């Protein structure tokens, strides 16, 4: 029977023995979303979705390491892999979300409705995302070294704060863009892109990542002796479940219409809207 083993002396990497069953469930789920989103990305040539696919794979590897850790709670490498890969994978989800929004804005020729200039729109959010990724990735290794744990914790919190602020700005930008687009369109939508469906998908996945990021902020704010790090169920409920939901929602509302080479065109009637045109730049 698996038991909690010390890494060194009386220092324990874990506060509990990880659940194999819980980890296996998400291993299977994330390998499925990796394959499904990967297939749609390849089929539709939506290369901006590659970061999300990589993030799915990182989640899979993270939970595989977590399952392995159940019988090796004294293994530094196993703990490090599951901790760091699960921690930073959502930043890759965010990168695809930002690029998806940027492509939608350009596809609709509605750059003037964005509060951030079109040429900086994607760059601004992805830059914040990369910064968050690098800080959290660099900090993950420090957390498991006792004399650097405090610095590592501070860096993780900083990375998460950057992610939360970036997502907050993104959501404000998206909502304002949405409202301006609806207010100015002449009772029209584009035939080749379900822009409203894409926006709803972006709202849903962004909200889930925001919830997860705030959870992680509270977790690291509490520290290793806090309730969250001492109870495994919290990690599954507020991290694993929201993130698998993100990858599932993205798959079912996959933005295939924004693939390379697609231009705005055509008109159609639907949901009471007569399609005419979206105002230009």
From TrEMBL:
<keyword id="KW-0812">Transmembrane</keyword>
<dbReference type="GO" id="GO:0016020">
    <property type="term" value="C:membrane"/>
</dbReference>
<dbReference type="InterPro" id="IPR007568">
    <property type="entry name" value="RTA1"/>
</dbReference>
<keyword id="KW-0472">Membrane</keyword>
<feature type="transmembrane region" description="Helical">
    <location>
        <begin position="46"/>
        <end position="65"/>
    </location>
</feature>
<dbReference type="Pfam" id="PF04479">
    <property type="entry name" value="RTA1"/>
</dbReference>
<protein>
    <submittedName>
        <fullName>RTA1-domain-containing protein</fullName>
    </submittedName>
</protein>
<keyword id="KW-1133">Transmembrane helix</keyword>
<feature type="transmembrane region" description="Helical">
    <location>
        <begin position="20"/>
        <end position="39"/>
    </location>
</feature>
<feature type="transmembrane region" description="Helical">
    <location>
        <begin position="235"/>
        <end position="252"/>
    </location>
</feature>
<feature type="transmembrane region" description="Helical">
    <location>
        <begin position="198"/>
        <end position="215"/>
    </location>
</feature>
<feature type="transmembrane region" description="Helical">
    <location>
        <begin position="155"/>
        <end position="177"/>
    </location>
</feature>
<feature type="transmembrane region" description="Helical">
    <location>
        <begin position="126"/>
        <end position="149"/>
    </location>
</feature>
<feature type="transmembrane region" description="Helical">
    <location>
        <begin position="85"/>
        <end position="105"/>
    </location>
</feature>
